[in-house]
Design brief:
- By secondary structure, the protein is α+β, with helices and mostly antiparallel strands.
- The chain is 25% helix and 33% strand.
- The strands form ten sheets. Strands 30, 31, 34, 35, 36, 38 and 41 form a seven-stranded mixed β-sheet that branches.
Length: 712
């Protein structure tokens, strides 16, 4: 048998007692823990790829061995594979006595025997099986649609099946012994310390919470609800130990102690070096130890099956490791990939993720922790997080001093216009890897050689071109949202809003008169007035806008209207797929934190790696190289059509657009709240119940109040 050890051994704690954390703070949830979790090894296991792909049931562990059941062929010939927890001593057993049966579930009962839920000719059976594959018993169940059974448990010779929101009970002979339902969702049914529990949503006074609830098999009643507070981990139960229950989701493994009533994060997948997307099964092996079974394609279409053993060891083994705590409202796949790579490369630095996505209001919970002084070393400033607000509160560190000392990433490496747009008071708190440009496309016959106009000028032009339409706009709300994000109506630095202005009221009157289907038939009419440029996926996409306005004297790229008639274009990042990281001012090891943050800003990353779904890299050198490639190389689009290289004229249009970037159009939660205010008040205006002046003043007052509450 061939197996391979890869990577280094990770000694990483769920909570690290005595480890060096850059923030100088211990994890508030786990500060008393004296153990860490160690992924000893992840080794390749000689299980055929076709077998692994056909595992229809979750693996089980029994007496320290791992058992996997799969089916071969349409005849439903079943095979059981057993091996040690390290993948050695593999044995394959053909389950001859189960031929022709459909297997819908497998579990281990309270007598430590295998129990299988099977079906044949519309009849449901519950079989008892030994490790040898011999079926030692079988009873018929009056149970319909076995495939809808989510879980099963066994206690005192009775069988319990979870089917949607009901628990179905059968006696030792297979006769029905009761049906007990709940109104809210139930995820799992499990046995702990001789008692039956469900894992699901609370009811009554506990509605909206997630937790465990005891089920009394004698009375059929549900007892005390053990809730997790405001946190909703989701996931599934992976095992029990004494008074503890272990849960796993796509970010971490948690334990819940019935005696203490506490949900505790044991470890994160990323911190121990595992990609949750590659975990096919996860087993609790007892004594706080776990086994992750992973499957990852090797590039040739075959799946490499690996066993990764995770052990609980003394925390002193990892006390020299620096831990960088990274807060996120939900890590993107790209961020997870880079954390895994970084943790494997570094010998003395580990990035640990604090993911808030399980909370009912992730951003509110993060803000509360920040206000209480629970500040991480790195913050993922993805969707919803206000950079200006964090900077105003003194939570973000300027990256320029770190760049001055660095040989790989310098201030001068970035496109000047982009860097300037990202600055706040001459400081740079974050920088993305790739960005979009937001602008308006128009015909030169309409706008002349101008690159900017006021709202009044734009509306006067439109009144002269009534036969034309805004292309791609199909609602008033869509246009209003673009105007809001690309205009100067919100000034965080001055804590001001600008809605009670003539410019905004001009927009209001125009949008009110705009037909609901404006732009819906634009491509048929071919009479475009303005068309938004956004979300280009390739540099050659500029050609699409050239074609739209070819018959109107050529393409003019306009900025969104402004009072000073500037020609600045706005930019935005693909924040749900690309990291946008900042180092906190409170981080005690900023150099170590910068070692990770700068990964996304290096030449190699932006040139050859990353999740490149935007056409414009933030580095000047990479942008020029990508532009040169686009001018010399053709490619096939998704429809198989050849896309010719850019012309010199098209390249100059793109260079001009990049040089005109001056606004960072960022959708964060504070801006969204103010946009909600705008939308709410505009409803009455559209209905004719208020004038433009009254509506603008109401928006102004409510938005100012919101800003003052948020920024003080």
């Amino acid at each position: 048998m061939y197996w391979k050890i890869f990577g280094k051994i990770f000694l990483i704690a769920a909570v690290l007692l005595g480890l060096t954390a850059c923030s100088g703070k211990e994890d508030a949830e786990n500060s008393d823990t004296e153990y860490v979790y160690q992924m000893e090894k992840a080794q390749e296991v000689n299980i055929q790829e076709k077998c692994f792909q056909s595992f229809s049931l979750a693996p089980l562990q029994k007496d320290g061995k791992v058992y996997l059941l799969y089916s071969e062929g349409p005849e439903e010939n079943h095979v059981m594979i057993s091996c040690d927890a390290d993948g050695n001593n593999i044995a394959k057993t053909e389950l001859k006595e189960l031929e022709g049966l459909g297997i819908y579930g497998i579990s281990i009962d309270d007598q430590n025997d295998f129990r299988l839920l099977a079906e044949k000719d519309d009849q449901i059976f519950l079989c008892t099986m030994e490790e040898t594959g011999r079926v030692s018993g079988s009873i018929s169940l009056d149970l319909k649609q076995a495939e809808y059974v989510n879980d099963m448990a066994f206690l005192d010779k009775k069988s319990y099946f979870l089917k949607e929101k009901e628990i179905l009970v059968f006696d030792k002979k297979g006769a029905p012994a009761g049906t007990y339902g709940r109104r809210e969702a139930v995820y799992d049914l499990f046995l702990s310390d001789g008692n039956l529990y469900i894992y699901g949503e609370g009811e009554g006074s506990d509605r909206g919470k997630t937790g465990f609830q005891e089920f009394n098999p004698e009375t059929g009643e549900f007892g005390e609800f053990f809730d997790f507070g405001e946190y909703k981990p989701g996931g599934y139960v992976v095992g029990t130990e004494k008074s503890k229950v272990y849960l796993a989701n796509d970010t971490a493994v948690y334990s819940y102690d019935f005696s203490g009533g506490e949900l505790k994060k044991e470890f994160e997948w990323l911190r121990i070096g595992l990609n949750a997307q590659n975990i096919k099964s996860f087993l609790f092996m007892g004594d706080g130890n776990f086994l992750a079974i992973t499957g990852e394609e090797d590039g040739a279409g075959e799946t490499n099956v690996k066993f990764a053993r995770i052990r609980k060891v003394d925390a002193k083994e990892a006390e020299n490791t620096k831990i960088l705590i990274l807060d996120t409202l939900g890590a993107s796949a790209e961020l997870e990939k880079e954390i895994l790579a970084f943790n494997e490369e570094q010998d003395d630095i580990t990035v640990a993720v604090n993911d808030y996505s399980g909370y009912e209001d992730p951003w509110a919970k993060m803000q509360l922790n920040l206000a209480m002084g629970v500040v991480p070393d790195i913050i993922d400033l993805g969707y919803e997080i206000s950079i200006e607000m964090l900077a105003e509160k003194g939570l973000l560190a300027d990256l320029y001093p770190l760049m001055e000392k660095d040989s790989e990433v310098k201030k001068e490496d970035f496109i000047p216009s982009v860097r300037n747009a990202m600055e706040i008071d001459k400081k740079l708190y974050t920088m993305g890897d790739w960005f979009y440009i937001n602008a308006l496309a128009a015909g030169k016959e309409t706008v002349g050689e101008s690159e900017g106009f006021t709202t009044e000028e734009m509306l006067l032009l439109y009144k002269k071109k009534k036969e034309m339409t805004f292309c791609n706009y199909v609602s008033k709300e869509a246009l209003l949202s673009d105007i809001f994000y690309n205009g100067a109506y919100l000034d965080y630095s001055e804590k001001k809003v600008n809605f009670n202005t003539g410019q905004f009221m001009d927009w209001m009157e125009f949008i009110k008169e705009l037909p609901e289907n404006a732009g819906q038939d634009a491509e048929k009419e071919e009479t475009f007035f303005l068309c938004p440029i956004s979300a280009m996926n390739h540099l050659t996409d500029i050609r699409n806008y050239e074609k739209l306005f070819k018959g109107q004297g050529g393409l003019a790229v306009m900025s969104y209207p402004s009072e000073d008639k500037n020609n600045q274009l706005s930019m935005s990042f693909a924040i749900n797929s690309s990291p946008l990281l900042a180092i906190t001012q409170q981080c005690g090891q900023k150099t170590a934190a910068w070692t990770f943050v700068k990964r996304f800003l290096t030449y190699d990353y932006q040139k050859n790696g990353g999740n490149i779904i935007c056409p414009f890299p933030t580095r000047q050198d990479v942008f020029e190289e990508k532009l040169a490639e686009a001018m010399t190389e053709s490619f096939q689009d998704d429809d198989g059509k050849e896309v010719k290289p850019l012309s010199k004229k098209e390249a100059e249009i793109l260079r001009s657009m990049v040089s005109r970037v001056g606004i960072y159009a960022r959708p964060d939660q504070e801006r969204e709240k103010i946009l909600d205010i705008v939308m709410e008040e505009m409803e009455a205006y559209f209905a004719g119940d208020k004038t433009a002046e009254e509506t603008a003043e109401l928006i102004q007052g409510r938005a100012e109040l919101y800003l003052s509450e948020k920024f003080g």
